[in-house]
UniProtKB/TrEMBL annotation:
The lineage of its organism: Bacteria, Bacillati, Actinomycetota, Coriobacteriia, Coriobacteriales. This is Signal recognition particle protein. It is found in: Cytoplasm. GTP binds at residues 104-111, 185-189, 243-246. SMART domains: AAA, SRP54, SRP54_N. Part of the signal recognition particle protein translocation system, which is composed of SRP and FtsY. It comes from the Bacteria. Keywords: Cytoplasm, GTP-binding, Hydrolase, Nucleotide-binding, Ribonucleoprotein, RNA-binding, Signal recognition particle. Belongs to the GTP-binding SRP family. SRP54 subfamily. It is an enzyme of class 3 (hydrolase). Involved in targeting and insertion of nascent membrane proteins into the cytoplasmic membrane. Binds to the hydrophobic signal sequence of the ribosome-nascent chain (RNC) as it emerges from the ribosomes. The SRP-RNC complex is then targeted to the cytoplasmic membrane where it interacts with the SRP receptor FtsY.
């Protein structure tokens, strides 16, 4: 992957200590190849490498004590710049209802993105309404209705025939039902054609959206730039949502969009679940690409979930030890953050580790362990040390697992508990010292 390639280049530089011009030239050649192979637009690559090289070739960098470090920093800077420097948040106007319209080719991920956006806004305390304006695909409105139902957001379908009329109707519906944001999901075509563009223009004229966002599929590769540019020629829009960035797309198109079209990337979509739409932060994305990890993102996610109860729980665990119920909760939290994969992919070097595992991360263990814990009695969960051979066999039967599975969970619990014990004694030592002062 791009991250691996870039990291190999950086590793080579680090191994050198002092850098010569030839070292930098060769590193820049590697970076150029890596970007091209990741499908980044050739002109973007050319400019990027020229700028980066110029900044690296200064005496300041080459004669510094940590030249390789400086090169990495410059690449990071330039990559961030390429992606748009600062984030371009979705700003809702004071108009009620706010109207956000999604456009894009068929299959690009509009409907999925509409639902995710609705979910995100709902979590922020808004009351969104989804408007089903794709009247061409027979099951399009059903798809939206099902997904909307899953996240508890109403879907306006109107007569199901006239897209412009449905869009208009959805605004009235929102006003009547106190919904403060309308998200208009439109129809796409396999290719940009006259009819699709005209319909987009007509809907825009009818509902005057506050924001028009174009959804593009990361897998489109080089062609993303053409699609976005052609679209922009016919009707203006405010930003881009890049979908399917979780797939094995090389992602180069995403790296080119901002530079070539001048349109900011607002969100990236990283999966099929409703909570997998992320605000796009150029610096974090650049770090992710360089394998430096999105530690800030993880902390934010964790903070979102940590409430007073969890802090209370942590204190109790330190005091009384780690129960099976705690283990259940912990597994649920990891799942919520996208599973081990979701967390690993954001940690420094994590994406690399994942690639090396070749997707062999067994998330099913979670489900199995959950089933096992659910088969324990209350007493067993609170005091797992009472689980003897007989109990173990019963739990295995109840959860459809084997005693060996139960054993391995018990072992995990034992290790967790040992760790808690260590932390407890560390804490006691620390507070003991303070007490003596
Ligand atoms: P539309 O035709 O533009 O409305 O596209 P859809 O929203 O129906 O999406 C097309 C397909 O792509 C569906 O199977 C979605 O589940 C899938 N999809 C959409 N967004 C993502 C994403 O971010 N990640 C993944 N893995 N799949 C996605
Ligand atoms: Mg659709």
């Amino acid at each position: 992957s791009l991250s691996d390639r870039l990291n190999d280049t950086f590793d080579r530089l680090r191994g050198k200590g002092k850098l010569t011009e030839a070292d930098i030239t060769s590193a820049m050649r590697d970076i150029r190849m890596a970007l091209l192979e990741a499908d980044v637009n050739f002109k973007v690559v050319k400019d990027f490498v020229a700028k980066t090289k110029e900044r690296c070739m200064t005496a300041e960098v080459m004669e510094s004590l940590t030249p390789a470090q400086n090169v990495v920093k410059i690449v990071l800077d330039e990559l961030t710049e390429l992606l748009g420097s600062t984030e371009s948040k979705l700003v809702l106007s004071s108009r009620i209802p706010n109207v956000i319209m999604l456009v894009g080719l068929q299959g690009s991920g509009k409907t999925t993105a509409a639902v995710k956006l609705a979910y995100l806004l709902k979590k922020q305390g808004r009351s969104p309404l989804l408007a089903a304006c794709d009247v061409y695909r027979p099951a399009a409105a059903d798809q939206l209705a099902t997904l909307g139902g899953e996240i508890g957001v109403p879907v306006f379908r109107g007569d199901g025939k006239d897209a412009v009329e449905i869009a208009r109707g959805s605004i009235r519906e929102a006003v009547d039902n106190m919904r403060d944001v309308v998200i208009v999901d439109t129809a796409g075509r396999l290719q940009i054609d006259e009819q699709m563009m005209q319909e987009a223009v007509d809907i825009k004229r009818a509902v005057k959206p506050d924001q028009v966002l174009m959804v593009v599929d990361a897998m489109t590769g080089q062609d993303i730039v053409n699609v976005v540019s052609t679209f922009a020629e016919r009707t203006d829009f405010d930003g881009v949502i890049i979908s399917k960035l979780d797939g094995d797309a090389r992602g180069g198109g995403a790296l080119s969009v901002r530079q070539v079209t001048g349109k900011p990337i607002k969100f990236v979509s990283m999966g099929e679940k409703p909570d997998s739409l992320e605000t796009f932060y150029p610096d974090r994305m650049a770090k992710r690409i360089l394998g430096m990890g999105d530690v800030v993102g993880i902390i934010e996610q964790a903070q979102e979930m940590a409430d007073a109860k969890q802090i209370e729980n942590a204190k109790r665990m330190l005091r009384d030890g780690f129960t099976m119920d705690d283990m259940l909760e912990q597994m649920a939290a990891v799942k919520k953050m996208g599973g081990m994969k979701g967390i690993l992919s954001k940690l420094p070097g994590g994406q690399r580790a994942l690639n090396q595992m070749g997707g062999n991360l067994d998330e099913k263990i979670f489900d199995r362990n959950e089933a096992i814990i659910h088969s324990m009695t209350k007493a067993e969960r609170l005091k797992p040390s009472i689980i003897n051979g007989q109990r173990r066999a019963r739990i295995a039967r109840g959860s459809g697992t084997t005693p060996a599975d139960v054993n391995s969970l018990m072992k995990q619990w034992g290790e967790m508990n040992k760790m808690m014990g260590k932390m407890r004694s560390m804490q006691q030592q620390a507070s003991g010292k303070k007490g003596k002062k």
